[in-house]
Amino acid sequence: MSVSTVESVEKFVNFIKSPTLTVVHFAADWADQCGQVTEVLRELLKIPEIQASKTQFAICDAENLSEISLQYKVDSVPTVILFKNGEQVDRVDGADAAQITAKVKTHSLGKAAPVNAAPQKLEDRLKALINRHNVMVFMKGSRDAPRCGFSRTLIQILNGTGVSYDTFDILTDEEVRQGLKEYSDWPTYPQLYVKGELIGGLDIIKELQTNGELDATLKA
Amino acid sequence: MNNILQVCFSAVRRMSTTGPVESTIFNKLQSALSASHVNVINESYMHNVPKGAETHFKVVVVSDKFDGLPLIKRHRLVNDILKEELQTGVHALSIVAKTPKQWEESDKIVESSPNCKGGFGK
């Protein structure tokens, strides 16, 4: 499965007819923020529960298919609209990754969610995540496409050390994003953990690097 | 169609005046840490936020209360003092926390933070 493109009004009408959730991203080539939203949709597609719910994602060029944009009052890009049975069930105007993630999850898992799957406790989930790798980075975006200058600089420093590490994109998971701030009592991202222990954000990593202590910290 | 589509993006120019949040941050840090030097830099103009916004800050704090504390504890101390601000609109806080001795020995040049590139919030 991937994020498809709807090229005509007819295809759009067929696409949104589905009884399972369909998510349409109204985008324009010239707007950078649309690329970010597409990235968020791709991440959502990787979630097994969302795959199981048969949720489909598509991109619609808001200018080429202006007829549709006008009908759904899309007056800025990016806009994401959620449909079921051809009816709009929800929408997010603007590149609000957290809202998009939350709404897609709510609507896709509404009925299809397995009844007996006990939700993992958030604290256990966070513990498992920060211990997923010896060196774990919680950041905005991925290591190949950081979505924030602070995260990008941190990745550059880490790549320079040659140490292996894993990353988690907090923009794709609002629960982790808010939960980890409280769990670790640290208000901002990126956050770097070594063996499950918070080392700090970019300022601290930079200072460790300047003092020549970074390698030893990462290889602890 | 072109003219009704827009991306929420506004250019920002640096404000020369000191905003209310900036003053609060300065006062809180100075009194809570008996700081010998405090510098609060509003870096919001580097980001995709409205003119005059107070969302992105860098603080330089020199205090002997940092003596013997590892970096993470110094940062936690500063974060804690500014907890309210961080919960109510301050989106990025870059911290330089040094003891008076370290400050004297340093070049006292503070480089600016990277742009954060997005409107995604903290």
Automatic annotation (TrEMBL), chain A:
Q: Which CDD domains match?
A: GRX_PICOT_like (cd03028), TRX_PICOT (cd02984)
Q: Name one GO molecular function term.
A: metal ion binding
| GO BP, sorted A to Z | intracellular iron ion homeostasis
**Keywords of the record:** Iron, Iron-sulfur, Metal-binding
Q: Where is the Glutaredoxin domain?
A: 135-199
Q: Which Pfam families match?
A: Glutaredoxin (PF00462), Thioredoxin (PF00085)
**Nucleus listed as a keyword:** no
Top-level taxonomic group: Eukaryota
**Domain Thioredoxin per the UniProt entry, residue ranges:** 8-105
What InterPro entries does this protein's entry cite? Glutaredoxin, GRX_PICOT-like, Monothiol_GRX-rel, Thioredoxin-like_sf, Thioredoxin_domain
**GO CC annotation terms, alphabetical:** cytosol; nucleus
PANTHER family xref list: GLUTAREDOXIN FAMILY MEMBER (PTHR10293), GLUTAREDOXIN-3 (PTHR10293:SF73)
Protein's name in the database: Glutaredoxin 3
TrEMBL record, chain B:
Q: Which GO terms describe its cellular component?
A: iron-sulfur cluster assembly complex; mitochondrion
In terms of InterPro entries, this protein maps to:
BolA, BolA-like_sf, BolA/IbaG_stress_morph_reg
Listed transmembrane segments: none
A UniProt-annotated Pfam family:
BolA
Q: Which domain of life is it from?
A: Eukaryota
Output the PANTHER family linked to this UniProt entry.
Answer: BOLA TRANSCRIPTION REGULATOR, BOLA-LIKE PROTEIN 1
Q: Which family does it belong to?
A: Belongs to the BolA/IbaG family.
What name appears for this protein in its UniProt entry? BolA-like protein DDB_G0274169
Q: Which gene holds the coding sequence for this protein? A: LOC113515567
